[in-house]
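Take a look at the protein record below and tell me what you see:
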Amino acid sequence: STQSTWGSSSGMDSKNNKKEKKAKARSKGASLFDNKIVWIVVGIVVAVVSLSFAGWGALDDKTKDAISANVVNFSSLVGKEWTGIVDQVKGLAQELLDDPGRPGLHLRMRGQRGLYPVLFVPGIISTGLEVWEAKPCLEKYIRKRLWGSVGMFQPLLFNADCWVEHLRLDPDTGMDPDGIRLRAAEGMEAADYFVTGYYIWGMIIQNLADIGYDPNIMYMGAYDWRLGFEELEKRDLYFSRLKLWIELQKSKTGKRTVILGHSMGAAVSMYFLNWVESPLGGNGGPKWVDEHIEAFASLAGALLGVPKSMSSILSGEMRDTAQLGLIMGHFANSLVTPQNRSDMFRSWGSIYSLLPKGGKAIWERLVRFGNVTENGDTYLQLLRSGTPPYVTRRLKRHSVGSRLVPNPGPEHWANPLETKLPNAPTTKLYCMYGVGKETEAGYFYKLENGAYSINTTVNGEEEIFNRTATSGVVEGPGDGTVPLLSLGFMCAKGWASNGKPHPQRNPAGLPVVTREYLHNPHLIEGAKINIQGGRRTADHVEIMGNHEFISDILHIVSGAGPTQSRFESDILSRVASIDI
């Protein structure tokens, strides 16, 4: 047989065969690298890899088109044996075409530079909190972060009661408890990343640096997000410091400031714009905003509140706790009990600033309890009846109405429905937010042993809300955290409608622009794994890395912000029938 014939060859024949094979291999290798086509392919591979490091976005459009056309048409210049290699090179090049690199690099190559000073106002839980005075159980954490770092998990896991005690404020004063002081971290790193690898403002800061920004002309307005807005000024002079920084920038650069407020930071910004001109606040006078503020952008701003603030006060729960499941729910409750959670949340004055605003017209259904459905007009009664007396006192300091107030005081300043915009006709307003992600919008509650809790047994289609309930939580349109109407009502109708300013809430006619971004996350893009969804995500936090979102911000701070609204949702039809 052939097998036995080959197997019986002499040792000399075997050695000759091996030599012939080696010679052929050397010959093939030599011819391979003598071939100019190979070196062209290698050159393209090296160029593509280099571009991936240098940043495809740094190239102009003509260069991109030329590279793309030459790589795509290259297969016509080579033989069939190279088709596979060329296809791989084309695939690698296409990844670069799909990934334009940082928007900041792209704009820098086009000659765009930042023009206005920038103030960042972070949202709730975004800023790191450091320990400056502690009880014995946390003495070793002095000047270390108890919130906003990987290190915060150690005390939470090993002494959760101590951790909660230090994060909880005095329920009566809303200030520091005796023997405990936490303060906001400072600088860009206070809110650039929540923990290593999980960005908040980090991507925006990086792109601003690409077009010429540095800490001399941008400021992270970090603050202790637990405090009520009045307490922020009383304890930390927070709004006074913002006012001084903006005035310093105007004096130094001659330019007005752009305010970027994310999530609750948008509500803080609204409070500031009312505070700064009022004799009860910064006493800057009726022209201060017009003279000092170039633009205010609400980035995923909870301008009309969020339902989860209500459930947090009532029972220390929200979708995240209700849908943990039996095992994880037990684990979470063993670390921080529902009672400890609700006590902690109730002590934070900031939570009350996020209560749903606008009444039944905005929040038709919020809570189903027994046979009663609470809406935006009635839910406060449930909070008063189901919580300690100090909660009622707190509620009186936060107005959640829907009608314009003639002479608004501090209790109204964070509610854009009750206050008119400043007399600043050249200041621009933007509402920029994601859409296309289910967001908690209502709850089914039960009362057991004198305590309220989300009824996690309610699942499936529910006629009351006309939506599906999951573990007692009903969801609706939004960005995953803030419902759609809270994100966009003010820009879509509250301040302007069909391009016309609202005559009472926007009498000076500030230009108002809405920019919606459709949630389209990708875990894997090219060779990258995106734990936060990639450049097209529009989740509440992750949108801060959305390339189109960032590009719009860069244009705003450069004096070339978008002038036309863009809608990806049905918000215009939703607000059409709302009359407030």
Notes: Residues 499 and 512 are 8 Å apart (CA to CA). Residues 11-34 form the longest helix (24 residues). Confidence is low (pLDDT under 50) at residues 1-42, 48-59, 71-75, 92-98.
